[in-house]
Each structure stands twice: as structure tokens, then as C-alpha cells.
């Protein structure tokens, strides 16, 4: 188990460098004139241009730029954005609200997907099963770019059930609408996978044994079948985290939530290389760590899985 | 702690003189896309306390379905019990509401299955799966239930029960796993134990141990044991009586000694002749020609007639042969049982 974790951590370091390198290269290739992009329509004086070029090593070759960046990163210095703000500080300001938002989205998605998935598996072919099938198809068909503004218009502006925008200090209720929108992007597949997995497990021999033990159908389903069915669902939730991150960029932009995605969207638009690479690096780490945790969770769910 | 046994005894219709278990004319159908499969077509047998009844037949003859119908764990749909009675001490279980039926399971009638590895839940420890019975049916605390689980593992002679209670099914050997299954079935002191091919998945030496254990526990507890098997060798040592099933019907019922000495139904006779015997070494082993009928298309008259060397015209016509009483405590559903016996 210990050796497994060490091996995975070593793999993570490789993945991390690979991923940051790709992001860095993409931003480098995308850069046209970042100094002009920063200034907008206004002209930039040669003096300012020289200072900024010097500070961000803009006249250096790609490997040298990457070298400078990595040196900073490994010493814990994420550098400064083109606008001159400390990226480390920006991140620590942006993370809490994004964390709250995505955690809420994961919980909402998993709760609804697993409950509805189990229900439609038990009553397969019934009314509930068919209507959830329809709902999931609908959810899969509507992209989050459409869903987010529509939800904002209907539930926040028209019905006024939720606030339309939030601040960095948003409470859970303020974040509920964007979290539900975010959850919708992953809920449909999670529901289908839960349903399939439960249907499969309901046919297993141990279910017959559980019934022969005189257990109630409820106990058979929620104690015996569910835990066996959850393994593929947990995998999916780990992978879905990537979906949630990209979804967060849109949702935070639409609902004006000053989180990681919001900053990232701004950075991309402003061609702010250091900012984008810094934020993405952290997202990569989060994604890797969560997937390691998911793999370790398997062993907790299924005792047959042991890591050597 | 609620007295569940008391509740079952208090059921109207409980008759102390009735057999422990009595199955009358049981019919089970499966509604499938290919039509209606008649898995059980009028199975009847009875069982007394302390007695071992073997139900013998090829795969697909309806023995497992009968067992599951007795337990009430058939999946409906596709399975439907269309006719018949399952009487436990005179009470027809098929007429009981599901909540009461549930209390009969494991408390009064318990069952063990063929493949213990798939029949046990892979993600819970055997201790949890045993203790669950006491917690759900007896309202015991976690700790007390765990203690009882250890005692049970001890009773089925699992060495080191105290530490093994924490293990998971995949950590046991095949024989030990089947012992866990037996412990689970015996947990609530049932009066009837149905064992569905309990040793088929095990190798021969372990088979003998498990059969020995079952026979011993049956004696200790004066339980009625229904032993479902396709293996005539297993049956001979432990069974008191045998019911031979073919195409969902009991074709012959007899005390075990009689049936081995003089089978009364051509099918039983053919089964006995297909057992490899040392004294016939070197000779061709006889097999039963043809295949058991598809359950969606059971032949008219006697279902065995297409494979039967005694078959004559009456066998091919409905109604099927009745259960002829061919000797005291013996029945056979064959018009020509005298010929079969006489040879």
C-alpha cells in the first residue's frame, strides 16, 4: 500500500511536469503581443515595453522562458501576472469559493445521480426509469454554455429564487444555483452508470442470498447492492472532476463568481501567460491528487482490491 | 428482542400434526420472450423433522426453482407461481403476506447455495454478513451479534473463528466458504434447511467433509434437510428418501435403499445406469439418449417418453401418468412401472 502510494506520487510528478509544459507551450504559441493586450487600445511607451519585456523575459527563447518559469515554480514562486499581481495571492483568494462551488456540485450531482440511478434500476422499464432516461438525454444534449445563462435568467432574474451573481464570500445557498448547473454537466452520465451497475448487481447471486436471509428489499438494495455498484460510479466522479473544472470556467464567468475559473477566463482573454500557466498548474495538481484518492477509495469499497 | 418464532407459530392454520414441509402440485412458469417456460409442473413432496429428502435431477429439471419457490425468493416477473401450495406446518406460505413470509425465511426455512463465492457478498466481511441476521431478525447489538457470529463459525468447525470473522469471502478456501454459508443458514436455528447443490463447486475430498458436516448438524438439531443434487453418489450416503424430478415434475419418490435396489421409473433407472462403476470397468458407460425437453415445449403425456425405452402409445398422450403407488411409501409416474421394476 505504502509502496503503491509512493509509486503513484512519482508518476504524478512526471504528469505534472508534462502537463505544465504543454500548457506553457500553448500559451507561448498563442501569445501575439501580450504587452499590447494588457494595455488594451492605449499606446504603450517604449520605456514601459522594455521594462515589461525584461521582467517577463519576453525576448528570450521558449526553453529559457520555461526554465525561468520552472525555477520560480519549484521555489514556490508562481510569479506575477502581467497586471503585476502576485499569482500565489490571487490563487489563495480564488480557491475557497471555487472549492465550495465544486464540492457542492459534486455532492449535488452524486446525491441525485445515485438516488435516481438506484430507483430507476429497481423499477426498470417503469415510468420513473423512462422519464429519467429522457431527462438525462436532455441534460447531455444541452451544453453548459447554454444551461448556465438560461438557469440564471429563469431562476434568478425571473423567479428570483436565487441571487444572480455572488461575491468571494458567497454562502452555500448563494452558490446553489451555479452548483446545480455545474452538477448537470456530470449528473447524466453518473446516473446512467449507477443504473447500469445496479441492474447488473441485482442479478448477482449474493442478492438471492440476501433475500433468502429474510432481509427487506430496502436493506438488500441500499446495503448489499449499492456498495457493490458504487465502484464504477466513484471512478467516474474522479474523472468528472476535470469536467467540473472546465465547467467552472463558464459557470463562474456567467454568475460572476470570483473563483479560479473566473480568473482563468480573464487570463486567457488577456493573453496573460504567467497567470494561466500558474492557475492551470494548480488545477493539474488537484486533479491528480483527487484521482489518487479515488483509487485508494476503491480499496475501501471493495476488499478484493489490494495495492501492492 | 421480539419473539419471531412465536409470531410464526401464532399464524392461523398451524397444525402440529402436519408434516414439517409439504409441497402440493406446485407450478412455476417463467414468462420469457420465447414464450412461457414451464419450469415446475406439479411438484409434490413432503418432509418430516430430522429427515433428509434428496431431490434428484438433471440441470434444468426445476429443482432449484422449486427450492426458490419454497423460500419465496423467485424474481417475479419473470417467474410466476401459478398453482399449488407450500405448506410449512400446515400453513400455506404462498398465501402469507410478504412481511410475514420474510420472517419465515432464515428463521424457519433457510437455504444454502451452490457457489458460496458468488452467493456471499464480496464487499462485506463474513462477520458482518452473519451478524446481520441477528441484528435484523433479533434486534441484537453490534457486539452481541458479532459474538454470535464467532460461535457460529466455531460450530461449523472453522479453525480460528475469532480472527476469521473479520475476513472477506475471497480470503476463504472453497470448503471453508461453504461452511460460512452453512453457518449463515443455521444462524437462526431453522427447522428446514434447503441445500441447493451444496458440494457441486467443491473437490471430492471437501465434498465428503461438507456432506458429513451437514448430516451431523441435521442430527444435532433434528432439522429437516432438503438436499438438491444431480449427483446420485452424494445422495446414497445421507438421504432417507429421494424424489426424482424430470421436466418440473416428481417422477419417482421412494426410500433411498429401495430406489437404488429397484428403481420404479425408467428415468431413475437410466440415471442409475449412467453412474460409473468399478465392477463395470472397461465397458462402455451407458448414457441417456437425447436431451431433456425445452421447458417452453414439454412433450404431451409423459415428458420422458421421447427418451424412454419402455414408451408405448399411452405414454405419448395426455394426461400424464398419475403418481402410481408402487409399494408402501413409494410412488412412480410411469404406466409401466411393473415392467421397470420387474426387469
TrEMBL record, chain A:
SUPFAM superfamilies: MetI-like (SSF161098). Its main location: membrane. Residues 95-298 form the ABC transmembrane type-1 domain. It is a multi-pass membrane protein. The chain crosses the membrane at residues 12-29, 101-122, 134-155, 175-193, 229-255, 275-301. Pfam families: BPD_transp_1, BPD_transp_1_N. It is found in: Cell membrane. Signal peptide: none annotated. Keywords: Cell membrane, Membrane, Transmembrane, Transmembrane helix, Transport. Gene3D superfamilies: MetI-like. The keyword Translocase does not apply. Belongs to the binding-protein-dependent transport system permease family. This is Dipeptide-transport integral membrane protein ABC transporter DppB. The lineage of its organism: Bacteria, Bacillati, Actinomycetota, Actinomycetes, Micromonosporales.
Amino acid at each position: 500500500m505504502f509502496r503503491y502510494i509512493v509509486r503513484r506520487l512519482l508518476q504524478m510528478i512526471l504528469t505534472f511536469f508534462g502537463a505544465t509544459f504543454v500548457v506553457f507551450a500553448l500559451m507561448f504559441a498563442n501569445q501575439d503581443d501580450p504587452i499590447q493586450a494588457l494595455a488594451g487600445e492605449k499606446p504603450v511607451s517604449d520605456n514601459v515595453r522594455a521594462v515589461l519585456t525584461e521582467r517577463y523575459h519576453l525576448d528570450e527563447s521558449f526553453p529559457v522562458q520555461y526554465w525561468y518559469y520552472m525555477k520560480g515554480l519549484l521555489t514556490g514562486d508562481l510569479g506575477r501576472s502581467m497586471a503585476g499581481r502576485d499569482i500565489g495571492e490571487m490563487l489563495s483568494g480564488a480557491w475557497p469559493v471555487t472549492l465550495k462551488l465544486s464540492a457542492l456540485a459534486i455532492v449535488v450531482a452524486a446525491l441525485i445521480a445515485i438516488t435516481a440511478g438506484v430507483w430507476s434500476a429497481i423499477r426498470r422499464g417503469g415510468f420513473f426509469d423512462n422519464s429519467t432516461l429522457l431527462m438525462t438525454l436532455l441534460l447531455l444534449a444541452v451544453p453548459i454554455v447554454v444551461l448556465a445563462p438560461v438557469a440564471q435568467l429563469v431562476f434568478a432574474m425571473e423567479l428570483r429564487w436565487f441571487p444572480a451573481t455572488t461575491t468571494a464570500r458567497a454562502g452555500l445557498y448563494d452558490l446553489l444555483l451555479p452548483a446545480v448547473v455545474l452538477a448537470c454537466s456530470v449528473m447524466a452520465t453518473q446516473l446512467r452508470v449507477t443504473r447500469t451497475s445496479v441492474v447488473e448487481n441485482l442479478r448477482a447471486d449474493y442478492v438471492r442470498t440476501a433475500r433468502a436471509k429474510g432481509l427487506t428489499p430496502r436493506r438488500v438494495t441500499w446495503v448489499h447492492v449499492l456498495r457493490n455498484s458504487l465502484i464504477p460510479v466513484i471512478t467516474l466522479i474522479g474523472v468528472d472532476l476535470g469536467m467540473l473544472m472546465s465547467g467552472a470556467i463558464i459557470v463562474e464567468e456567467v454568475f460572476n463568481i470570483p473563483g479560479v475559473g473566473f480568473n482563468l477566463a480573464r487570463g486567457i482573454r488577456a493573453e496573460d501567460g504567467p497567470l494561466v500557466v500558474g492557475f492551470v498548474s494548480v488545477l493539474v495538481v488537484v486533479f491528480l491528487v483527487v484521482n489518487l484518492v479515488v483509487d485508494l477509495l476503491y480499496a475501501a469499497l471493495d476488499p478484493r482490491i489490494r495495492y501492492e | 428482542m421480539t419473539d419471531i418464532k412465536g409470531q410464526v407459530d401464532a399464524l392461523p392454520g398451524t397444525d402440529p400434526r402436519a408434516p414439517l414441509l409439504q409441497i402440493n402440485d406446485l407450478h412455476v412458469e417463467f414468462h420469457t420472450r420465447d414464450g412461457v417456460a414451464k419450469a415446475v409442473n406439479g411438484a409434490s413432496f413432503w418432509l418430516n423433522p430430522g429427515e433428509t429428502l434428496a431431490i434428484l435431477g438433471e440441470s434444468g429439471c426445476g429443482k432449484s426453482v422449486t427450492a426458490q419457490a419454497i423460500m419465496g425468493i423467485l424474481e417475479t416477473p419473470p417467474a410466476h407461481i401459478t398453482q399449488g401450495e407450500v405448506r410449512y406446518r400446515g400453513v400455506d406460505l404462498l398465501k402469507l403476506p410478504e412481511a410475514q413470509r420474510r420472517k419465515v425465511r432464515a428463521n424457519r426455512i433457510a437455504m444454502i447455495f451452490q457457489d458460496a463465492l458468488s452467493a456471499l457478498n464480496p464487499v462485506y466481511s463474513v462477520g458482518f454478513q452473519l451478524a446481520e441476521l441477528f441484528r435484523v431478525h433479533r434486534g441484537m447489538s453490534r457486539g452481541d451479534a458479532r459474538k454470535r457470529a464467532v460461535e457460529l463459525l466455531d460450530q461449523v468447525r472453522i479453525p480460528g473463528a475469532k480472527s476469521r470473522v473479520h475476513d472477506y469471502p475471497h480470503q476463504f478456501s472453497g470448503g471453508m466458504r461453504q461452511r460460512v454459508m452453512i453457518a449463515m443458514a443455521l444462524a437462526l436455528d431453522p427447522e428446514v434447511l434447503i441445500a441447493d447443490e451444496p458440494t457441486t463447486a467443491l473437490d471430492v475430498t471437501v465434498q465428503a467433509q461438507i456432506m458429513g458436516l451437514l448430516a451431523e448438524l441435521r442430527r444435532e438439531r433434528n432439522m429437516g434437510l432438503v438436499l438438491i443434487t444431480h449427483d446420485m453418489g452424494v445422495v446414497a450416503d445421507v438421504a432417507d428418501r429421494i424424489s426424482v424430478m424430470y421436466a418440473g415434475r416428481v417422477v419417482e419418490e421412494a426410500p433411498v435403499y429401495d430406489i437404488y435396489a429397484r428403481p420404479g421409473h425408467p428415468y431413475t433407472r437410466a440415471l442409475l445406469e449412467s453412474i460409473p462403476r468399478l465392477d463395470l470397468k472397461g465397458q462402455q458407460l451407458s448414457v441417456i439418449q437425447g436431451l431433456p425437453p425445452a421447458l417452453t415445449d414439454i412433450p404431451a403425456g409423459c415428458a420422458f417418453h421421447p427418451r424412454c425405452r419402455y414408451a408405448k402409445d399411452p405414454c405419448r398422450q395426455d394426461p400424464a401418468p398419475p403418481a402410481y403407488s408402487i409399494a408402501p411409501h413409494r410412488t412412480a409416474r410411469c404406466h409401466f412401472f411393473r415392467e421397470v421394476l420387474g426387469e
